[in-house]
Automatic annotation (TrEMBL):
Superkingdom per UniProt: Eukaryota
Name the record gives this protein: Uncharacterized protein
């Protein structure tokens, strides 16, 4: 009978894969099992349980967003503002939901903030440098929140009237992001906002417009914008086509001498025509003509130049600069003694 003093004396592989350096299981490295992290729930600083201004009704409902922020609201306001019971989420049955909490699993807090501020007509804190509504990211939050309102039965045309806080907010953004606001207004049928935003689009080049933006604007408002731009350029061309009048010949400047003013005026017109756009300013027009005629010394020629330049700038300042009024350009230019027909 063969006997072995220990496993190491056995031929071949060791049974069960044991090793001579076997150590205690408590010494083996192991990752501890950590309990699941509970989400941190925060409360909206705008929609707290008690309204700071006292204008909101008492809160009786909590909205919880996907990023775990809660909003204290009242069910009555949401139901009155919605045409589909806020996407079918209301009214809340107290028996099945005693805490009256509605979980908005597909919405983020930034989106819900916009939606509720539109519904309650609360101001957007655009002056605060730490506000979430600052910069391009802020306008994207606003646009996204506005896009979601129809899903929950909210009529944007009713909420975003010209006296509402969301209208004022979007009008503020229009100075920095006019094309985005114009596209939003056109897409949502907010005509007053589109007209106001169009005044900031006088220098836009439609040839370089993003096709996605053009699709959002749609053919109707694109036509209005194009009509305004082309009509303004056409008007400016007509104003520039009239040259300064001739003055009576003097000892130092006869009819032939006045040809210099005509030549320099034509040179300035060519420069403006080459770089013409609907947003050209009166200061740019003045600077171009003054630089072109800087060598002219005849006082009568300079007087005629200045009179014509004042007339051009005066009528250019009166030219409609918004889409809604582009049809009125058919009446320009009008004589100083004759007011426009719509006055």
């Amino acid at each position: 009978m063969c006997s072995f003093k220990n496993y190491s004396d056995m031929p071949g592989d060791q049974p069960f894969g044991f090793s001579k350096s076997f150590s205690d299981a408590t010494q083996l490295p192991a990752s501890p099992i950590r309990p699941p992290v509970r989400p941190r729930i925060s409360a909206s600083p705008v929609f707290m349980p008690v309204s700071s201004d006292g204008q909101r009704p008492p809160t009786d409902l909590i909205l919880l967003t996907a990023d775990f922020m809660i909003f204290y609201v009242d069910e009555g306001t949401l139901c009155r503002s919605s045409g589909n019971n806020f996407g079918g989420l209301l009214p809340v049955q107290t028996g099945t939901n005693p805490r009256r909490v509605v979980y908005l699993s597909s919405l983020l807090s930034s989106e819900v903030h916009v939606m509720l501020q539109v519904i309650y007509d609360l101001p957007f804190d655009l002056q605060n440098p730490h506000s979430v509504w600052q910069g391009l990211s802020g306008i994207r939050h606003v646009v996204r929140g506005i896009d979601l309102l129809p899903r929950y039965g909210v009529d944007l045309k009713v909420c975003a009237h010209s006296g509402s806080n969301i209208f004022k907010c979007l009008l503020t953004y229009a100075a920095l992001y006019p094309l985005d606001i114009y596209a939003l207004a056109a897409q949502k049928g907010l005509h007053d906002l589109a007209v106001a935003a169009s005044s900031h689009l006088l220098s836009i080049n439609l040839d370089t417009m993003d096709p996605a933006i053009a699709a959002r604007i749609g053919p109707e408002y694109l036509k209005m914008l194009l009509g305004m731009l082309e009509n303004r350029k056409s008007l400016l061309g007509k104003l520039l086509a009239t040259e300064p009048g001739l003055h009576n010949p003097t000892k130092n400047c006869g009819f032939s001498g006045q040809g210099m003013l005509k030549a320099e005026w034509s040179r300035a017109v060519s420069s403006l025509t080459w770089n013409m756009h609907a947003g050209i300013t009166t200061s740019q027009i003045k600077e171009t003509f003054l630089n072109a005629t800087a060598k002219i010394t005849c006082r009568e020629c300079l007087k005629a130049r200045d009179e014509r330049l004042r007339a051009i700038c005066s009528e250019w300042q009166l030219a409609p600069a918004v889409t809604e009024d582009s049809r009125l350009l058919d009446y320009y230019p009008f004589r100083k003694s004759q007011p426009p027909p719509w006055w």
